[in-house]
Specification:
The protein folds into two domains: 179 residues, Glucose-6-phosphate isomerase like protein, domain 1 (Rossmann fold, 3-Layer(aba) Sandwich), CATH 3.40.50; 124 residues, CBS-domain (Roll). Strand 3, helix 5 and strand 4 form a beta-alpha-beta unit. By secondary structure, it is of the alpha/beta class. The strands form three sheets. The protein has a five-stranded parallel beta sheet with strand order 2-1-3-4-5. The protein has a four-stranded mixed beta sheet with strand order 6-7-8-9. It is elongated, with a radius of gyration of 31 Å. The relative contact order is 0.10. The chain contains 14 helices and twelve strands.
Length: 327
């Protein structure tokens, strides 16, 4: 059966209606927020332990997303499934925690069933609800109410607008906490070491060296033919030239050798000190790998000698060593 253009247009209209309903609900909430939100944020900032977020069904899924956002932005958080809490998972809660319980009705049976135990354990309680006049709200220290919202579901049954608004509140609280803690990109990277941001902000040249150690060096008085063997063995197309003190004097690349050969010179018996480049660009092993990559790109070089604090070469890094790490 084919779909007419008019029917396709109806789908678009429906989608726009949902987006408008949910967007308006979020904007309306912005104007109705009160001191309870400040109290919640201050309570979490003063928390000596973790934020435990709990909810059932769709609210539980929203709770898990809020936990993920809080955790990745510097607020240690855990998700507690209310039904599992009845069978032992309440053991994760301590009196030093803050519990955020999510329920649009405020009457979710599984949440109400764990309230007596939570009260005995003693954490601070925040109710994130749609109804202020509810059992969950009544038993909590702080009430964050999203109020009565129009669900985007035409049947008024499937949680849509209410879950969207709840998620937005969770995001807003997480970002407010992030700002209050002066949480920086470096902190974010610490919790995301497997992501591209983590690699850019945490990976140092020493990490690259550890993963792929390579330090081709040769005395400045050696002849080119001897150096060629070392260069070939390293596979880097370059070699560090060191003086009697062991410090870096320069770098010889296969490009230097090719250019000398192109000029018709018989260079195999020539000492490398006649060909190498003095005062090359170098980097310390403490440099961020992302910064080293930028230097290579800006200077259009493929290899960089790595020096220690005594100006001694300890490694040589090829641009491929960096790009293959996802930088």
């Amino acid at each position: 059966m084919t779909t007419s253009i008019n029917q396709r247009q109806d789908y678009l209209t429906s989608v726009k209606e949902v987006l408008e309903i949910e967007a308006n609900a979020i904007l309306s909430l912005k104007d109705s927020l009160n001191g309870e939100i400040n109290q919640t944020i201050e309570m979490i900032l003063e928390c000596k332990s973790r934020v435990i977020v709990t909810g059932m069904g769709k609210s539980g899924l929203i709770a898990q997303k809020i936990v993920a956002t809080l955790s990745s932005t510097g607020t240690p958080s855990l998700f507690l499934h209310p039904a599992e809490g009845l069978h032992g998972d309440l053991g994760m809660v301590t009196k030093d925690d803050v519990v955020i319980a999510i329920s649009n009705s405020g009457e979710t049976e599984e949440l109400l069933n764990i309230l007596p135990s939570l009260k005995r354990i003693g954490p601070k309680m925040v109710a994130l609800v749609g109804r202020e006049n509810s059992t969950l709200a009544d038993k909590s220290d702080v009430i964050l109410s999203i109020g009565k919202v129009e669900e985007a579901c035409p049947l008024g049954l499937a949680p849509t607008t209410s879950t969207t608004v709840t998620l937005a509140i969770g995001d807003a609280v997480a970002i407010a906490l992030l700002k209050a803690r002066d949480f920086k990109p470096e902190n974010f990277a610490l919790y995301h070491p497997g992501g591209s941001l983590g690699r850019k902000l945490l990976l140092t040249i020493q990490d690259v060296i550890d993963a792929n150690p390579n330090n081709p060096t040769v005395d400045e008085n050696k002849e080119v033919k001897e150096v060629l063997f070392e260069m070939t063995k390293s596979g880097l197309g370059a070699i560090s030239i060191i003086g009697e003190s062991g410090k870096l004097e320069g770098i010889l690349t296969d490009g230097d050798i090719r250019r000398a050969l192109a000029e018709g010179n018989h260079i195999l018996e020539t000492p490398v000190n006649k060909l190498y480049t003095k005062h090359p660009i170098t980097i310390p092993n403490t440099l961020l790998a992302a910064e080293a990559l930028k230097i290579m790109e800006d200077k259009r070089v493929n290899v960089l000698p790595v020096l220690n604090e005594n100006a001694e070469p300890i490694a040589m890094v090829h641009i491929h060593d960096l790009t293959k790490m996802g930088l």
